[in-house]
Every structure is written in structure tokens, then in C-alpha cells.
UniProtKB/TrEMBL annotation:
This protein's name: Bifunctional ligase/repressor BirA
DNA-binding region(s), chain positions: 18-37
Role this protein plays: Acts both as a biotin--[acetyl-CoA-carboxylase] ligase and a repressor.
Annotated Pfam families: BPL_C, BPL_LplA_LipB, HTH_11
Positions in coiled-coil regions: none
HAMAP family with a match to the protein in the record: Bifunct_BirA (MF_00978)
High-level lineage: Bacteria, Bacillati, Bacillota, Clostridia, Lachnospirales
EC number assigned by the record: 6.3.4.15
Family: Belongs to the biotin--protein ligase family.
PROSITE patterns from the UniProt entry: BPL_LPL_CATALYTIC
Domain BPL/LPL catalytic: 65-255
Organism listed in the record: Roseburia zhanii
Reactions catalysed, as given in the entry: biotin + L-lysyl-[protein] + ATP = N(6)-biotinyl-L-lysyl-[protein] + AMP + diphosphate + H(+)
Entries under CDD domains matching the protein: BPL (cd16442)
Signal peptide: none
């Protein structure tokens, strides 16, 4: 009922009368009043004026299934939300849910992870009340060899979502790190379970530094948070919503072609390495060149001394 009540307050331009809330939710006035008290205790600022009703003035930075569900505007991404105050890793939970038959569009969110996973076997520091740690479960209809492009689709959605929601100049560092003013603010870990001709599921795990006030010495020169960049707190639930709204748009375009042709130009416009000197950390032999954007298949086009090279995996610095 909290979700429906919050949604009713959010969807109204002004006041919502107690009577209207009772009718919409099918509950008594006392029940409405009790939920209002609970919301106020959680930090929601709600004005109550006699003869007019209730009005939502501001929401706290709460992460809960109710908060996320009440602000959701997406059509399928996050239709089901699984929220944990603490879990091992949202990717691990999303994979478990997938194995148990969970549906396409299930979103797993946690306030804290005890074993957050990064790329290349690294960890992902996930303290409480600071970040967004979330994983989307997808059952895409594209071919298995096309699925790796989904991580670029997610990177675009995060960069665009941050731009729209915070106004910060977020960009993508190929293939899928999100950076602001040269420092990493978000990492993405995509994992998949496929057969030769069929994708069982894909999980896209996204970790965003939102409210971190500082970083350990080892990473303070390369990592940042939205709070540090903006100079004020950013509400996590609103940003989550903004990101998945963008994701739906890009995902549909990607799936309609099975490649990035329809969104490649926009990806390139977000690419911080575009027309810049890059060093490709090829395990056989690292080399340097100028990044010229991505192909329809998501490879990075690098103009090297000996000609054009396409980078499909590995790290670029
Ligand atoms: C990277 O190394 O850049 C990728 C980091 C991905 C971290 C996120 S946090 C949510 C999801 N759950 C995890 O355990 N990892 C991803």
C-alpha cells in the first residue's frame, strides 16, 4: 500500500484528498493516516492541510522496493524489483533468480554488497548508503554472439541517465566505464548464460559511486562520485529510474537490428576517447593509436601506425 500511496501523491499536481486516497486504495482513512505517519518517520516530507488533503513536498534518499516502484515510469525494465538492504552481490542474486525462472526485466537492487564483484576477478567496494548496486536480468531474443553489445547499451543508458538527472557531463570510456572529468564513477559487469544458438539469460550489473565523500588512497586519483562532482547529494532512486528509462529506448533499437547501428552515433558522442590517443593493452603486444569510434558490432576503431585495427576485448587506457 505504501507504493500505491506514494505513487498517488507523486502523480498528483497538488493536493490529494484523504477521501480520494481511501477510494483509490480501497482502505479506511485511519489506514491512510497510519501509512502517512510511517512515511514521515522515514523522512518523506508530507504536508496535510484540512479540506485540501495531502501533498508530497520532498522525498529522502531512500532505497526500497516501494520507493523504486512508486517512481517507475518504464514499461518493462524493473517491472519486478527485488530489493535487499544487504546481499552478497546483486549479480549473484540476479543469476539465482534467472536459474529459478525469473522474468525478463527483473531488477535486483541492494543498499550494500558484502562481496561486490568487479571485472577481471576484482572486487567492487559497496558500503551502505553510498552507492547504486543493481543488476538487470534480461532474456534477450538476439543471437548469443550479439549479446556482448548489451554492455555498451547499458553504458550509454547510464551516461545519458546521469546527464539528464544530474546535469553532470558523464561520458563513456570504451567499452563500458562511465567517467566524469576523467575519473571513473561507474563500472558495469555483464555476465551471461548461453547455449550455442540460444541465450538463456544475461545479467547486467551496474555499480555507481553516488554519495561517496572520499576514496581510498589507491584509487582516489582515478575514482569519483556524483556527490564529489556535483557538490550536493543525488537521490539514488530517481537516478535508477532515469537510467532504466534510457535503457529501454536503446535496448529496443539494439534488438531491432541485433547490432548498434541505430545508436552508434549517440554512443560515439558520449565516448570520451573519441579522436584521442589511446593505448590498447593487447595481451600479445600493447599498441597506441587514435580512437575513431565504434563499429556496428561495438568494436573500438583504432587508427594505429600500421593502419586501422578493431579492438573487440581487453582494456584501453
Ligand atoms: C568494474 O569492475 O568496473 C565493474 C563493477 C561492477 C559492479 C557492480 S555493483 C552491482 C553488480 N553486482 C556486483 O557484484 N557487481 C556489479
Amino acid at each position: 500500500m505504501k507504493t500505491e500511496l506514494l505513487a498517488a501523491l507523486r502523480n498528483s499536481d497538488g493536493y490529494v484528498s484523504g477521501q480520494e486516497l481511501c477510494e483509490t486504495l480501497g482502505v479506511s482513512r485511519t489506514a491512510v493516516w497510519k501509512v502517512m505517519q510511517k512515511l514521515k518517520a522515514e523522512g518523506y516530507e508530507i504536508e496535510a492541510v484540512s479540506n485540501k488533503g495531502y501533498r508530497l513536498i520532498s522525498s529522502p534518499d531512500v532505497l526500497s522496493a516501494e520507493e523504486l516502484e512508486s517512481i517507475r515510469k518504464t514499461s518493462w525494465a524493473g517491472q519486478k524489483i527485488v530489493y535487499y538492504d544487504v546481499t552478497d552481490s546483486t549479480n549473484v542474486q540476479a543469476k539465482r533468480i534467472a536459474e529459478e525462472g525469473g522474468m525478463h526485466g527483473t531488477l535486483v537492487v541492494a543498499d550494500r554488497q558484502e562481496s561486490g564483484k568487479g571485472r577481471r576477478g576484482r572486487g567492487w567496494d559497496s558500503p551502505k548508503n553510498t552507492g547504486i548496486f543493481m543488476t538487470m536480468l534480461l532474456r534477450p531474443t538476439v543471437k548469443p554472439d550479439e549479446a556482448s553489445m548489451l554492455t555498451l547499451v547499458a553504458a550509454m543508458a547510464v551516461a545519458k541517465g546521469i546527464r539528464l538527472y544530474t546535469g553532470l557531463p558523464a561520458g563513456v570510456k570504451w567499452p563500458n566505464d562511465i567517467v566524469i572529468n576523467g575519473k571513473k564513477v561507474c563500472g558495469i559487469l555483464t555476465e551471461m548464460n548461453t547455449e550455442i544458438e540460444y541465450i538463456n539469460y544475461v545479467v547486467i550489473g551496474i555499480g555507481i559511486n553516488v554519495l561517496n565523500q572520499s576514496f581510498p588512497d589507491e584509487i582516489k586519483d582515478v575514482a569519483t562520485s556524483l556527490l564529489l562532482e556535483k557538490g550536493e547529494p543525488v537521490k539514488r532512486a530517481g537516478l535508477i529510474e532515469a537510467i532504466w528509462e534510457q535503457f529501454e529506448i536503446y535496448y529496443d533499437k539494439f534488438c531491432s537490428k541485433g547490432n548498434l547501428s541505430e545508436i552508434k552515433e549517440e554512443y560515439n558522442s558520449l565516448l570520451v576517447n573519441l579522436d584521442r590517443q589511446v593505448r590498447v593493452l593487447d595481451p600479445r603486444e600493447p599498441y597506441e593509436g587514435t580512437a575513431r569510434g565504434i563499429t556496428d558490432g561495438g568494436e573500438l576503431i583504432v587508427e594505429a601506425e600500421d593502419g586501422i585495427r578493431l579492438v573487440s576485448s581487453g582494456e584501453v587506457s
